Hints:
Layout: E1 5-13, H1 20-31, H2 41-67, H3 74-89, E2 93-101, H4 106-111, E3 118-123, H5 133-146, E4 153-155, H6 163-180, E5 185-191, H7 195-201, H8 205-222, E6 229-234, H9 247-256, E7 261-265, H10 274-290, E8 295-299, H11 306-317, E9 322-323
Parallel strand pairs: 1-2, 1-3, 3-4, 5-6, 5-7, 7-8
Antiparallel strand pairs: 4-9
Amino acid sequence: xxxxxxxxxxxxxxxxxxxxxxxxxxxxxxxxxxxxxxxxxxxxxxxxxxxxxxxxxxxxxxxxxxxxxxxxxxxxxxxxxxxxxxxxxxxxxxxxxxxxxxxxxxxxxxxxxxxxxxxxxxxxxxxxxxxxxxxxxxxxxxxxxxxxxxxxxxxxxxxxxxxxxxxxxxxxxxxxxxxxxxxxxxxxxxxxxxxxxxxxxxxxxxxxxxxxxxxxxxxxxxxxxxxxxxxxxxxxxxxxxxxxxxxxxxxxxxxxxxxxxxxxxxxxxxxxxxxxxxxxxxxxxxxxxxxxxxxxxxxxxxxxxxxxxxxxxxxxxxxxxxxxx
Length: 325
């Protein structure tokens, strides 16, 4: 019997193989998207092809080598596990996983949901951004323009202030403290965006990150957990001005001022990936320790955990969706 409701989970994307060609192909598709880099194509393409990719690909492949497992990237591994577990927990709903860039692609995933009367799209980005969520929605609109069969698709804009999401983050913090002790500072590190995007695109991404931070601080206080919490932004790319403060700078400053024990959580990443497992738990760990810090712990993303399953079940069951028109 065909399922009447479909759920399409969409994450960012990842190279399909640990090879220079696969990484080059992925980075090209990703960085040519106007949502990610909004420079004019005729200016940006030769810079990307001849200057950036020749340097970036060898640099990136060495990082992926440190975190690649089960013959795929962590992002794909955890996202697929999440989709599979949701399918088990929600047998009445047809669950599919897609990536904005590379495989599994959105068009194939949508085609697998054609028998559903209703499709809910959940971009796995807790805080809405034109660089991530809007890229998903615009690509979906292009697909359904070519296929009039899809006429009942709704999407969840984000879940930055969802109580189940805040509870899940808080529970992760609790578990980390039980395992590693209480840190002097908990740093919440979100993916950064160019400063010009805030003004030009009039998006509320920074405000959504700040809201998540405020609600998590409130949750900690209400639960009797006295914890110093700061926030920052990571993954700066290029020479332009990006939103601040920068995660690496904050960690270095904390160590320089005598802080010995920090824990870092990345609330904007639904699944662990190169930005969390390498950039935070390797690169930024070294920055903190080499600057005088002594204890550094990365708190994992929600990945395929029970907390994440329950969060997505609550999102699917709520009525806070928007038509994809």
